[in-house]
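re: ur question from earlier - yeah i can do the single chain one, its not a big deal. heres the input i used so u can compare w yours
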Amino acid sequence: MKRYNKFNPKRRLAAAGRLSCGELETLAAAVIYTGNPEHKRNPGDFNLTPPAQPRRGKTLCDVASIFKKADALRYLRDGLERGAISEAFVDGWPKNIWAVTEDGTPLEAQRDGEGRYHGYPMPSEDPMAAEIKRFWNAE
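and the output i got, formated as tokens:
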């Protein structure tokens, strides 16, 4: 069976200044990384239930060398502090937060609940991945 990749065309980076630096720092201090077993081959220290359950077609954090929850949280906070957030918000939190690893891998985090996110490397064929890299490198 061939997997059909479809990327959400409604995702948009928030305009610069959507939130003040202080608001971004407040969110970064409160954000929680939950993780998702579907994006892990090796559970590391994520304390996931089930510990790891990669699903076909899901991008894995393993390919971005993210094996520690602290590293995932650091990328999440970096994305918030730089304002790499979606235009869409729910209950005061952006639906998506983006970051780029030191080796240039773009990451996307999705909101799981108030202040809680899981993330994964973005597929190279996702048009948003190139936009995130441009934004990140312009900072």
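The two ends are 41 Å apart (CA to CA). not sure if urs matches, ping me
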